[in-house]
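User: Fold this, then the next.

Assistant: Folding the first:
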Amino acid sequence: MKDARFHGTTDPMPGLALAEIVPAAARARALIARSKTHAALANDFPRVNGAAEMLDGLQYHFENYARHRQAMAPHDDAVLAHQRALVVDGSMAEPMARAVSETLEAAAEPLRGARHEVIAYLNVLGRYYYFARGLQPAFTRVVELLPIRHKVTAHRSIDMPKGESDNLRDIQAMALTTLAGHMYSFPGGRAELSFQVKVGDAPATGGFGDFIDICLERDHDVVSAECYAVLEVLLR
């Protein structure tokens, strides 16, 4: 059961060097198929192969998210045009704002889908983290995003409190729901969707507390690279 040689594995791209294979989920499958005699796969194949399946889960939820985002393109364009008008020509801001409102209804359903894919993505990421944490992973963005999984998606702090204030639990219960809304940023002349989650109370000295923004359009490549690196080191 634990030996990779008793299980079928398929190299998705046998003619390519690992470094050339994208996305990282496919590279992970190829790595395992090419490493069947490695001690980690001879002694612990179900656990390690399951981690590669989790990477595939991250890719799956990201691709679904990207399809929802593509369906939001008319609304994205209207939001971006409105932002440009505010900066360049204030007289155009009002008609551009109407265009934002007019495209919002059509964007509501794909926005709903995108939000639920983010929730699913974070839950898979949490599973991967618990696989990897004993291997001393070089995680940066994964660790930054993990509090959202702990406080909002895997379970909610309002249902399983761990010292949060009542106010923070209420705010976290609204995160990644229609009550909390969403944000746009505009790097390089394009609209990127993000969701902001409050993960820490405001300090007694003042301020707003700690927030984390998740934007799969930016985060996925970084997260999947960090996750793949764990398998790469393990099977070296």
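Now the next one, as you asked:
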Amino acid sequence: MPASVATVAETAARAITGALSLLLLADAPALAAEPLAIRSDVSFGYDTNPAQSREGPELAFARYGVESARAWPLAGAEFGFIASGWYRDNEADNDSYRLSLTGDWTRATNSGAGLLKVSVAGAAYRDRLVPADERDEAAVGIRYSRVLSARHTLGLNGELRRLAYRNASLPWAGRPGAGADAGSGRGSDTGRNASTDNRHRNDTLAVRRDDDLFGVGLDLTRHWLPSVASVLSVAHARCESSMTAQTYDRDDLGLALRVTPAERWRLELGLGWSLTRYAEISRQVRREDEQHSLTFAARRALPGRRPGEGEAFCGIDWLDSVSTRAERSFQQQVIQCGLSWSFR
């Protein structure tokens, strides 16, 4: 790991340590704080296209994550604070990481049948494989969930997120719709693998941009059996960018099936579809991306631990992205296995 990255990682570690210290010390009797909850995970895997570009490199990786959370009762509601981060160590000098802080206010409604949550968050994302995606984020969100019956729960959510990109880039540089899921993909020919011949020309055209991303969504959970549940979700996002070519509308449809075949096992199968329509630059320059995804994950509780407290897991993700701009089409497969554990 280069010295510059090591310095940043050390600074990030100190920031998380400081946040943890605040959580540990903020134990005023008047607030009667709940115990500090810490969750960690480590996994190893292989990604056929982490940059999500047409001819991206295939890389093995190790991923490390940590999250700490604490909650306090507050005037009939609950205030929570979460500090989290993950680091993905790809082969060669292609690492990425994300740090985030979130505060949320939660209140039960309708005699406990409903739950309202309002949150504010800030995040920093860094990516040496695709520098065009590096950014700082600030967000405010709201979610309301309501139990409709013994089998059905409905959820509504909305979010406004500001994405301040750090590096100048060309139009459509970085991963498509990069604000939607930091670090999980989407690539370009303007990353670290751009040719030397094109770099000088590109530098004269590249600009730094800020995006405002607004999203709304709805999800319906149905419990078919005590051990079988499905979640159907629909969402729409609008991204307004200071770079016209990066402005887009995105529609998403997802279906997840969750099964608990035995006390210590949890399985999940997910299907997804999305259509992203970018702002029209001219009649000759138009772009639409259609994506199909398939995910499968299996988790098993470790000996002596309950599900959610300590687990071994494996997952497979497949993504096919077809664009009207042929050079922006790609496929990606990711497989990873690891361990997760939590304690209070």
